[in-house]
Specification:
By secondary structure, the chain is mostly helical. The protein has two domains: 3-106, no CATH class; 114-238, no CATH class. Helices cover 59% and strands 6% of the residues. It has eleven helices and four strands, in the order ββαααααααβααβαα. A hairpin with a 7-residue loop joins strand 1 (6-10) and strand 2. Helix 1 packs antiparallel against helix 2 and helix 8 (162-172) packs parallel to helix 11 (221-238).
Length: 240
């Protein structure tokens, strides 16, 4: 490739046996074909899926495109034509299927950053496999409801000590744009462990602050190991 994004390729039918092509023009053609194929897949889904599955599929497409844009910001800046696919599909879904991107992606109780959408099930599995939640009582769909539904009657009842609950919540915060202490407390959706002697309570300001301070003083080796495991798990998601 020459400077300024010019590609020289062998062309026996040309004088001199070669021709110069602009890389951005080649990229544009590739993206047009990919966009056209994606539109066809959207139409197939529109015919074959029920309303709930269809909207989940549309949402996953937009999240994936948004994640691609975020993870390749430098390329998108250098070659603005890359933005065209996202804009075209976004507009296509809204005009052809009344799927309003802004309302579908942003009208949730907590706003998950698009790049982490694909990690949700991994997070749920981590919490269930380590018995921080009981997956027989609390499904992945319940987990999503607690995080996203505006009017949610489900709560997330944890199955571990309160300092570990606060460790989990604190490490989930960077994955969202508004998963703040105040919104978590105001939601009343996150409940401490219920025991034989004590019923679980919604995380309150005093519970949160008290256990943030306890975390700094914990000496129990097993407890420290679990807290470290939680922190490492969320770090690897954030730095993927």
């Amino acid at each position: 490739m020459k400077k300024n994004g010019i590609i020289v390729q062998y062309a026996p039918y040309k004088t001199g046996g070669k021709e110069e092509l602009k890389f951005e023009d080649i990229l544009s053609d590739i993206l047009k074909k990919a966009t056209s194929k994606l539109k066809s897949e959207i139409e197939k889904a529109n015919i074959s899926l029920n309303l709930t599955s269809k909207y989940k599929y549309f949402t996953s497409i937009l999240h994936l495109l948004e994640k691609t844009k975020e993870e390749n910001a430098e390329t998108f800046t250098k070659y603005p034509v890359c933005k065209k696919t996202y804009e075209t599909i976004n507009n296509y879904l809204e005009t052809h299927h009344s799927f309003n991107t802004e309302s579908q992606l942003n009208n949730t109780y907590f706003t998950l950053k698009p790049k982490y959408y694909s990690n949700l099930e991994e997070i749920y599995d981590f919490l269930a496999n380590n018995l921080y939640i009981d997956d027989e009582k609390f499904s992945f769909e319940d987990f999503k409801s607690v995080l996203f539904q505006q009017n949610c009657k489900t709560s997330l009842n944890f199955n571990c000590s309160t300092p570990l609950i606060i460790t989990i919540i604190k490490n989930m915060m960077p994955l969202f744009s508004d998963f703040s202490r105040k919104r978590i407390i105001d939601s009343g959706r996150f409940i401490t462990k219920t025991t034989e002697k004590k019923k679980g309570k919604p995380i309150s300001k005093s519970i949160y602050d008290t256990n943030i301070n306890r975390l700094k003083k914990i000496k129990n080796v097993e407890h420290k190991r679990k807290a470290s495991e939680i922190e490492d798990f969320f770090k690897q998601i954030i730095h993927k």
